[in-house]
Amino acid sequence: MADEIVNAEGLTEEEFLKRYDPDKYASNNPAVTVDILLFTLMGDEGEQQNSNSSKHLQVLMIKRGDHPFMGKWALPGGFVNRGEDVEEAAKRELKEETGVEDVYLEQLYTWGAPGRDPRTHVVSISYMALVDGSRLNVFAGDDARDARWFKIGLKLIKQRKETHDGEYISEREYELALSNEDNKLKGVVKLIRSVKDGIVRTRYELVEAHGIAFDHTVIIVHALLQLRKRVWYTPMLFSLMPKYFTLEQIKKAYEAVMDMELNTRSFHEKIFKTSKMIIKADNAHLESPPDAVYTLNPEWDDSELL
To answer: How many domains are there within the chain?
Structure first.
C-alpha cells in the first residue's frame, strides 16, 4: 500500500477531517442566498389574447413582508441551508414564496459585494428562467406579502466613451421601469466596461432605486441584458411558442424581449440561415394553414455556430 499523504502536522486526510470544525469559519464567512429571475411574455392585464397579440416581457417579483426593505419589491429568493444544493435552494425558495415549481433554472451570476445586504455580508447566486406565465398559478407564501408579474421597461439614458493609456472605457446608465396595474417601480444602474490588453472587465453600480429592494435593480438589468444576447444563440425563447408558428409570431416574441422593432428580412436571415434554430415545417396537416409555418430545428446544434 502506497504511503498516505500527510500535511504539515503529519495528518492524513481522514485524520484531518475527523478533527475539522465545520463551524470554524461560520462567524466570519459570508452567508449564501439565491435570487430567481422568472421572465415571461404576456399581454396587458384584461386584454384579450391570441397567438398574434403583442406581448411584453415581464418579471416575477415578491413584496417583502419583513425587514430589511419591508414593503418593497424583490426577486424571489432566500438563504441556502447548510447541506443544501444551491439549485435545490433556488427551487425551494421559488416554490415557498410564489407557488411556482417544476421550471428549469439556469445559473446566471454571483453577486458578493460587501454592503449589498444590510444584515450581513451576503453572497447571492442568481438563476434565470424564461417561462409561460399563463400556465403558472402564482401566489405569495412564506415571508412574501404579495407576488406579482411586472412589465419591464429598460432604456439607455446616458452614455460615455473614452480611451486612456491604451484602455477603452465605456459607461452606460440604464433606467429600469417595472409596472403593473397597481405598482410603478424604478431604478438606475451604471454599467462600466473596460478593455485593455485583451482583458475585458465589467462592473455595475446601483445609482438609485425606488420601490426595489437590495441591489435587485442591478441583478434585473444584468439578467435582461444577458437574456437579450442569449435568445440569439440558444433556443430558450421557443419554449414559449407553439410547435408550429409563423415568422411573424416568433418575430413578435423576439421584439418583446429586445423591446424594439426588427427588420423582417434580417431577422429571418439571422434565425433561419445563420443560427439554423428554425426550419420550414410541412403545413399540409394544419387547418387553414398560413403561407409558411416554421418549427424548432430538432437537430439544432450550437457547435455549428463556432
So the answer is: 2
